[in-house]
Design a protein that fits this description.
2 domains, alpha/beta, TIM Barrel, single chain
Length: 350
């Protein structure tokens, strides 16, 4: 028996070609396209402006590999974490983060992660596969619906800061963002989307060359190679000098500031030379710094630095004319905070 094709893998042009081959008018492609993307249809049966016969034919030939929110957890601070089941049974996590001014969707780009950042829970998972564009898109739609249902407010922002390294799934992530920002999709402004990377210098430059319109964040955590290489293996192939060149290239090409994400840990990057190195790095190109509260992933290992050290980071950055903000984590009680997305269900499957 021939395996059914995933209809959402087809472009509109390919859909038009398909309908032509079965003797249906071209406008059927537009109708189906709207059902798949704007209306997020999960079955062909609900496509009520198509005949029953055509719906049955589509059902016989195609499948809609829609995600399913397998488990939803709500934090005491309003944060919602979704355990999302994919068509092949794999699970990823995504998070709705509500604040007074915005509702943000934090989405995953890979099942697991191949990078070995020692402070991140997702690093405990091997990378099983990249997410497809529609699987990324569906995470956003699920959170958009939760924002409206639970908060009576629209989704305002999207961050690619969930499981996986987005730039290691480059084409699928960009295809998902194109659909999210399209008027034939969710119509969200790319200015409200931020992609976060651990720092793949060549691909950061490629983003600039591809003239993307969304924002870029760099998960930095140290501007000293000897420190960064200990906590982030990827730094050995992408040292600080290469990152500095990449951020300068990005700004020269796009004219947009980068955001540096930075956690300060006790006895890791809490010394005066660490602060001085970050200030020097920030002078390479216009930027802002988010100093992020550390969220422990085990009883052992990393510890949050003394608050006085974080305050000194802020003071010296501000003194140098660099915007620095201390970000408090949300959703810690449901393991939904930054660095905590390990997906305990998935860990059990590995």
């Amino acid at each position: 028996m021939q395996e059914k094709r995933d209809i959402r893998a087809l472009t509109k042009s390919q859909l038009e070609d398909y309908f032509k081959t079965i003797g249906e008018p071209r406008f059927r492609a537009q109708q189906v396209y709207e059902w798949l993307w704007q209306k997020s249809a999960q079955s062909f049966a609900g496509m009520t402006n198509l005949s029953k016969e055509l719906r049955a034919k589509l059902q016989a030939e195609f499948v809609i590999n829609h995600i399913r929110v397998d488990q939803m957890q709500r934090s005491s601070d309003g944060t919602i974490k979704n355990a999302v089941k994919l068509y092949d049974g794999k699970i990823v996590e995504s998070v709705l983060i509500p604040t007074d001014k915005r509702i943000t969707a934090c989405v995953s780009s890979q099942v697991g992660c191949s990078l070995d950042c020692s402070f991140c829970a997702t690093a405990q998972l091997k990378r099983m596969r990249n997410l497809k564009p529609d699987e990324i898109y569906d995470q956003v739609v699920a959170i958009k619906n939760e924002a409206e249902n639970f908060f009576g407010r629209p989704l305002t922002n999207i961050v690619f800061m969930g499981m996986g390294e987005p730039l290691m799934n480059y084409n699928n992530v960009l295809a998902a963002i194109e659909r999210i920002t399209s008027e034939e999709g969710l119509g969200m402004s790319p200015k409200r989307i931020t992609l976060s990377t651990v720092g793949l210098a060549k691909l950061m430059k490629k983003l600039a060359d591809d003239e993307v319109k969304f924002n870029l964040a760099l998960s930095l955590h140290s501007a000293r190679d000897e420190v960064r290489s200990q906590i982030m293996n990827i730094n050995k192939a992408n040292p600080v000098a290469d990152l500095a060149e990449a951020v300068q290239y990005w700004y020269a090409k796009t004219g947009r500031k980068l955001t540096y994400e930075y956690v300060v840990w006790k006895d890791v990057n809490d010394k005066p030379q660490d602060i001085a190195a970050l200030v020097a790095f920030c002078r390479k190109a216009p930027c802002k710094v988010n100093l992020i509260e550390y969220n422990p992933i085990s009883e052992e290992g990393y510890q949050q630095a003394d608050p006085a050290v974080v305050e000194e980071y802020v003071r010296q950055l501000n003194q140098a004319g660099i915007t620095a903000t201390v970000r408090r984590s949300r959703g810690k009680d449901i393991d939904a905070a930054c660095g905590q997305l390990a997906n305990k269900n998935e860990l059990q499957q590995v």
